[in-house]
Amino acid sequence: MAAIKEVAKVRHEKVIRAIAAHLRSNFADVAASTAIQLGELDHPVSSELLVANIGPNDKRAVVLGAIFTSLGKLGYEAASDRLVPLLDKQNDDGWKKVLEESVNAVGRIGNPRAVDPLLEWRKRQPGGGWGGRWGGGGGGGGGNQSGRLWGAVDRALKSITGGDEETTNDWEKWWKANRADLMANATVTYRCKVTWERYDGPAGKRNPCPHAPDKGHTSCSQVIRTRMIPEPDAPAAPPGPPPGGGGGGNP
Ligand SMILES: [Zn+2]
């Protein structure tokens, strides 16, 4: 583990790829620690490789949890598009607990594209179209875990949009009425490929990287995400099991 941390101080895409290989370690705690390390390396490849290793780790909840935490922290919006469809696994026993963390990551990333699929998910739940936030619990398919997932989806919708509605119907009305304004006032977060620093700019404007303003530098910047409201200071997730915990001892 110490060796991985040392190497991670060298910032290069190749280093990220070398580190990410450990996401497939036979030791779940090594893979989970690797996922947390990648969350510190602000590069689109970190996010891409974390996403690519969801499938290979789909039987290891502790690794998945760490992957989702890091994807949320990194905040690259492309990851959100891959996380939302995981909601289809809600009846998969191995996924019930960890799915909430994936939805928390979706909320933290804040991609506006996630709103419609999250609302669609609510509609598919028992009583979801008309019921309030307790609707998912009473309809027979309920139980604690789906109630928690419902709560996570709710938090994600609030985090992405700033809205606070009760029923899915109200959410849809609200979203339809406010979407255009929210998008017009959105903030784009960029990353400079040279300095690895982030900067923000208003959506719909050209926002050259400030690291070389005299040159009107633009080729060094890449979009991380567009967010309609600022990310809440505190992560939305309630305290869960610590990432990397619960495994065996360090090899
Ligand atoms: Zn730059």
Structure description:
- The protein has 251 residues and is mainly α.
- It is 46% helix and 7% strand.
- The chain is built from eleven helices and three strands.
- Strands 2-1-3 form a three-stranded antiparallel beta sheet, with no helix packed on it.
- A hairpin with a 5-residue loop joins strand 1 (187-192) and strand 2 (198-202).
- It binds zinc ion (ZN).
- The site of zinc ion has 9 residues, from loops.
- Zinc ion (ZN) binds next to loops.
Short description:
By secondary structure, this protein is mostly helical. The protein has helices at 2-8, 13-20, 28-38, 44-52, 61-74, 77-83, 99-109, 115-124, 135-138, 144-161, 168-184, and strands at 187-192, 198-202, 221-227. Helix 5 runs parallel beside helix 7 and helix 8 (115-124) packs antiparallel against helix 10 (144-161).
SSE layout:
Elements: H1 2-8, H2 13-20, H3 28-38, H4 44-52, H5 61-74, H6 77-83, H7 99-109, H8 115-124, H9 135-138, H10 144-161, H11 168-184, E1 187-192, E2 198-202, E3 221-227
Helix pairs in contact: 2-4, 3-5, 4-5, 5-7, 6-7, 7-10, 8-10
